[in-house]
Specification:
The chain is α+β, with helices and mostly antiparallel strands and 225 residues long. The protein has 5 helices and 7 strands, in the order H-E-E-H-H-E-E-E-H-E-E-H. Strand 6 and strand 7 form a beta hairpin. This is RAD52 motif-containing protein 1.
Length: 225
Amino acid sequence: QHSLFSVFSRFGLLYSLRAHSNAAVAGPGFYAVVKFYSAADASRAQRACNGQSLFQEAPVKVCLCTKQRGFQQQVLALSSTKCQELANHYLGFSGWSSRIVTLQNLSGLDGESKEVGKPSQRQSVKFLCAMEVTVPSHGVCSRGVALGEAAVEDGEGPLQFLTATRRAQKLAVGKALSSSFQKILLVVLENGKVAVEYNCCQEEPTALLTEEELKGLIEVKAVQL
C-alpha cells in the first residue's frame, strides 16, 4: 500500500487508497482501489501506469472505475478534515484561513423539560457554530452554520457532561467548516494554476448578515436548523 501511494500520489492528491488480497477464485495477488480528488489526475495516472511495472516485475493493469454504486442520486459533502487537506494542497497552508464567528450552547432551548410522572429522557448537549473561511489572494469569503449534538453518557456526572460538551463543540465546528467549504469552488487549470470562485447557488441568509447581527439572531434560527 505504501508503494502504491508513492506511485499514484505523484499524479495528484489522493482521497483514499486501499489494497486488498484477491479472492480465492482469482488466484494469488492483490488489487487496489485508488481515489483521486480530481478526475483529470485519475485519467493521467491511468494512462501513465497501465501495463507498466511500477515497483514489481509483473506489469500492472490500471483501469478507471465505471461503477458508482449508490452515488448517482447523492451529493456527498467532504468532511472538514478532507476540506482542509484539499485546501492545503491547492492553496497552501497560508493561502486560506478560518475563524469561528460564534459558538453558542443551545442545550435546553428546544423545549426539552422533565414532566412530572414521565421518565426522564436522555440528556444531550447542543452547540451551534458559525464559521468563516477566507481565501485572501482571491478575495473569497464564505460562511457556514451547523449544529452539533452529543448525548450525555449514563451517570450524568461532571466528567460525562464535559466530555459530551467537547464532543458537541468539535462536531459543530467541523460541520460548519465543511459547510463553508461547500460554497467554494476550486478550478484547477491544466497548467497547474488554481482559480477560486464563490458558489452563489449555495447562498444562505446568514451570509448577508453582519457579525453582530449573526451573533444576535443565531439563537432565533437554532430551532429551524
